[in-house]
Design brief:
single chain; alpha+beta; Penicillin binding protein transpeptidase fold; Beta-lactamase; 5 domains; five-stranded mixed beta sheet; five-stranded antiparallel beta sheet; elongated; Glyco_trans_51; carboxypeptidase; transferase; Transglycosylase domain-containing protein
């Protein structure tokens, strides 16, 4: 072999070795550069209701990842025609396109044309920056070649179509399809697919929303390219170019009414399930929540109405929460009248609960401990307990009052007396089991005079015990969470705790129902069975001013609370009215939303119902006459106007020689005959109404001295 032949042979071998080494280096470097974690794309987390209807989305990038099999062939072809017509022929680098680009770059003296394949674009978008340098281009080539070795063409196209940006916050073809046409990608027509394929080059410039004419022209260019690539016939292309854009835009607008709820979903995901806010915004989960959007929107709108919030200025704040009493799922929540995302959430802020604490700290525990019954008599007088001297708001006292009426009229003195009889330690044991961990150890606990107070959400959980047979439950916002593959990764398992018996809970429901019907919570209108309790704390620096006002209540299917007040109460900022305002707001939210409510509470099985209270009326029209009965001789007939309540018993007393003697009883009627009277020594008489429920007598009637009445008149 000649010397020249040997040199040529060695040169060829060297070139082959160099190429082989270069190729090995490319593969090695590609493996080093490619980090598969970067292919885990950000995707939107969807919140859906229990009917699987989308409520809203949480995202950094609004993206729904779809598999390639859901993307129609004609949509895939549109992107291939405009971005990389030789996609199925090359191995990551299109030599023809690169040559053409190099030629134009050399003529221009710089980098002017890309010539990038879809694989290269994927490499650039995922792993590299957008700067046009030779070094960046070299890295792009290395990564592209390795991507082609590692993944199929269909997988590369799938990743590309899910990754690219289409404008107006839409990432990936599924989000773009829903944005511009309000349909899933699988439903896209040819011309719609062509429109989407026209956008990635310049989403802003070719936006069909902002620049419809330019977008139409660009779409028609894509249809031309599909024709040239053989995907469409000339006639098909021409016919499709004659169609309008036919947009059906569905832009994602954050509903302000949902902001508190969204924050509490994110808070629960992080605290209860250790899923960070960042992961939630990027992870593409589907979260089923128990929200009732109608109640949520109704509450939001009513919270904007200043007429419900009486204060010294327009900055009065409020909070609202409504829970499904059976499951514990939160149906609606408002963290403030001007709530901003990640702002001060007043549903979680502790406030002085006022009289809303009485059923939880005093009356419920007292019934459960059998210390009292609903119609037991409590002391209603201004007593002192060391230095503490509680007083009724109206400064009126009846001496004795039933537990039923003390609760209905929200009397302070009987509540403190009952707590003193029950014992603070016993009360706090119940409060702890109700989820109210209170440090205070004084009798002011009975009236809600607490150092820290309680939050609206904790009060709702506690009151649930009365509405659900004595059991509390933990409120929740996340019913179920599924990952991108539809696997359930989180599911609500609310815990219940038995605090009261069914009997105690039912007695409390009956009494709290009376509070709404004829007590401190009768303000406003509600057509249905409602039980609840008001609460007001005074702002003592200003006469007649209030600091916190409340209503906590429940129907046969929901339990909720409204709080009103200022974030900081001072002499310039205080409430000018009391608890009637949150009571009315609560009733209006329920009335104006779509919730259905029963007309009456249904008692659970095996409980005794609570009879209606008996109220004794004074009798001042007692009359007496002496009549003659053939067998009864002389008879005194006593008559009076009886109460409409036929359960009232009347004790009849004979008064003789200054001494009174009970001689008989009449139930439910206004007449009593005293037979065989000695007409030579006729006594006087009076009657006293008697309450069988409280074992309590009323005031005695007027006294009468009988006189003779003819037989005919008597009849």
């Amino acid at each position: 072999m000649s010397k020249k032949g040997m040199v040529a042979g060695l040169s060829i071998i060297a070139i082959i070795l160099f190429a082989l080494i270069g190729y090995i280096m490319i593969l090695f470097l590609g493996r080093y550069v490619i980090d598969e974690k970067k292919f885990v794309m950000n995707s939107a987390t969807k919140l859906v209701d229990e009917n699987n209807k989308e409520i809203t989305r949480l995202y950094v990038e609004n993206r729904d990842i779809v598999p390639i099999k859901q993307i129609p062939k004609h949509v895939q072809q549109a992107f291939i025609a405009v971005e990389d017509v030789r996609f199925y022929e090359h191995h990551g680098i299109d030599a023809k396109a690169v040559g053409r680009a190099l030629y134009k770059d050399l003529l221009a003296g710089g980098k002017v044309e890309g010539g990038s394949t879809i694989t290269q674009q994927l490499a650039k978008n995922v792993f590299l920056s957008n700067d046009k340098t030779w070094l960046r281009k070299t890295k792009e080539v290395i990564i592209a070649l390795n991507l082609e070795k590692r993944y199929s063409k269909q997988k590369i196209l799938e990743m590309y179509l899910n990754q690219i940006y289409f404008g107006h916050g839409a990432y990936g073809i599924q989000a773009a399809s829903k944005l511009y046409f309000n349909k899933g990608v699988s439903e896209l027509t040819v011309e719609q697919g062509a429109l989407l394929a026209s956008l990635p080059k310049a989403p802003g410039a070719y936006s069909p929303i902002l620049h419809p004419q330019k977008s139409l022209e660009r779409r028609n260019v894509v249809l031309d390219l599909m024709n040239k690539a053989g995907y469409l016939t000339t006639e098909q292309a021409v016919r499709l170019q004659g169609r309008t854009l036919a947009l059906n835009v569905r832009q994602q607008v954050k509903e302000p009414a949902f902001l508190t709820y969204l924050d509490m979903v994110m808070e629960e995901a992080e605290k209860k399930f250790a899923i960070s806010n960042e992961e939630l915004l990027r992870g593409g989960y589907k979260i089923t929540v128990p929200m009732n959007r109608d109640v949520q929107k109704t509450a939001y709108e009513l919270f904007k109405a200043g007429s419900y919030f009486p204060g010294t200025d327009k900055t009065v704040q409020g909070a609202f929460i409504l829970m499904n009493h059976e499951t514990g799922g939160v149906l609606s929540v408002i963290g403030g009248r001007d709530y901003v995302q990640k702002g001060l959430n007043r549903v979680n802020i502790k406030r002085q609960p006022g009289s809303t604490i009485k059923p939880l700290a005093v009356y419920g525990p007292a019934l459960q401990e059998k210390k009292f019954k609903p119609y037991s008599l409590l002391e209603d007088q201004p007593l002192k307990y060391g230095e503490y001297a509680p007083r009724n708001v109206d400064d009126r006292y009846s001496g004795k009052i039933t537990l039923y009426d003390a609760l209905k009229r929200s009397k302070n003195a009987p509540a403190v007396w009952a707590l003193n009889e029950l014992g603070i330690d016993v009360s706090k044991q119940y409060l702890n089991r109700l989820g109210l961990h209170i440090q205070d150890n004084g009798l002011a606990l009975a009236l809600g005079g607490l150092r820290e107070g309680v939050s609206p959400i904790s009060l709702v959980s506690a009151y649930r015990a009365f509405s659900a047979g004595g059991k509390t439950i933990d409120p929740f916002f996340i019913e179920k969470m599924e990952d991108r593959q539809g696997k359930v990764v989180v599911e609500a398992e609310p815990k219940e705790e038995k605090v009261f018996s069914k009997q105690t809970a039912w007695y409390m429901t009956r009494m709290l129902e009376a509070v709404v019907k004829d007590g401190t919570a009768k303000s406003g209108n509600f057509q249905g069975a409602l039980a609840g309790k008001t609460g007001t704390t005074s702002y003592t620096s200003v006469k007649g001013a209030s600091k916190d006002t409340w209503f906590v209540g429940y129907t046969d299917n929901v339990v909720g609370a409204v709080w009103m007040g200022y974030d900081k109460t001072d002499k310039q900022h205080y409430l000018t009215k009391g608890s009637s305002y949150p009571t009315k707001l609560f009733k209006d939210i329920l009335t104006k939303s779509s919730l259905n409510h029963a007309s009456a509470f249904n008692p659970p099985s095996n409980v005794k119902d609570l009879p209606e209270p008996i109220y004794l009326q004074a009798i001042d029209d007692l009359k007496s006459d002496i009549i003659f009965k053939p067998l009864g001789l002389f008879t005194v007939r006593l008559t009076w106007t009886p109460s409409e309540d036929k359960r009232v018993v009347y004790h009849v007393y004979e008064l003789k020689d200054g001494r009174a003697r009970l001689i008989g009883k009449a139930k439910g009627e206004g007449r009593y005959d005293v037979e065989r009277i000695n007409v030579l020594n006729i006594p006087s008489f009076y009657i006293v109404p008697y309450n069988q429920l409280t074992k309590q007598q009323g005031d005695k009637s007027n006294e009468v001295v009988p006189a003779f009445l003819s037989e005919e008149t008597a009849h």
